[in-house]
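Protein chain data
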Amino acid sequence: MSTSLSIRRRRHTLEFKQGLVALCQPGTSVSAVALAHSINSNLLRRWIHQYTDALPSKAITTSAKLVPVQVDLSSDLPVSDAIEISIQKNSARINIRWPGQQAEACALLLAELLK
């Protein structure tokens, strides 16, 4: 008696594929992204090669230079009413000091930075 196994392949939309490719920024583990979305990492790597040119570039080039920017808060804000955040990744460091009354705007900035 012969049994035939039929293997169904999942089909993914172009938006899904490009969305996962966009998550694979430099410094991000391709395997972790693949595992989190139940995709084989080799398949995701193939999509990266296929769709990288079709996506707008979000990566910062290595030749980009960051410069410190000082924004003066009004002097009537108490020091204890400031949000202070320090983020370090490899040799890059970002220090943020934000007025406490504008916490929602600070959250939006952080969400954009951490994408």
